[in-house]
Amino acid sequence: GCTDSHATNYDPSANENIGCDYNTANAVVASFGYLARCFVFVDVDGNRRHNWVTEPSGRSDQVGYVSMIYQVPGMVMVQPASASAACSDAIIGATLAVPLLSTVDASMVTPLTTIAGFLVGNRGLSPAAASARVWQSLSLAEQSVWSFNALQTSLTSQIPFRLVDALWLVRQMQAMNAATYVQELFSGSETFAGENGLAAFQALSNMVHDGPVTLSDANTITQLISLTADILRSSYDQSRASTIAAACAAANQQF
Asked: What is the DSSP string of 39-70?
């Protein structure tokens, strides 16, 4: 029998360790570039908070790769940067300010898998349907959000396809910017780290579900703010919201 408590076929009555089976979540964490030194865990109970006793965890390496053994499946969650986990983009140097989500079966964790994760969890879409809704609504070429490594592909693809592939990188960064900017409007009201950022991603998933989304448009960001406020059941300063929407749209237009 198997004496390793991390294995799926763990047998507490076994006397010798033979034939252990394991489930592993293996993924690359990325926004624009790869996100290194990030704290990642399998959110078994779905409360978006890490339980050190029951939820396996790991840290991404210099190319964003992380691997975790788990017994009970749950969403893979990347926590925002902290004093103990720098979690910074290897290309642009920015630290992660909002959580990211993906599935235990995915090979990528990005802002776009976060949107798709909410489509699966809240809208009941299959992973394939959620992925399709993301690339269609964000005007991208067909790929799976769960497995498409946009940076690696953009660097290695032939020139005629490079711009198409690079647009995935642009959308990942624009979605990250949108959630980060909107989160700032509601700062100080979180009940756990990253709550406002997750609400922004959830709101963005609702917009993606309903149709095309242009993340470089200030009106789109204004709508995202309103939907995020509804999810958080929070009020906000309209004047500051207009300033944030304009700043986010301008930042996203640079890409």
From this structure: EEEEETTSSSS--TTTS-EEE--TTSEEEEEE
Rounded distance between C-alpha atoms, residue 56 and residue 241, angstroms: 38
- pTM over 0.90? The answer is yes
List, for residues 74-117, the tens digit of each pLDDT value. 999 999 999 899 999 999 999 999 999 999 999 999 999 999 99
Provide the b/e sequence for 81-116 (b: ≥16 CB within 10 Å).
Answer: beeebebbbbeeebebbbbbbbbbebbbbbbbbbbb
CA distance linking residue 57 with residue 70, whole number of Å: 9
How would DSSP label each residue in 174-188?
HHHHHHHHHHHHTTT
Q: What is the pLDDT of residues 122-158, one digit of tens each?
A: 999 999 999 999 999 999 999 999 999 999 998 887 7
CA distance 216 to 249: 4
Helix (H) or strand (E) holding 25: strand 23-29
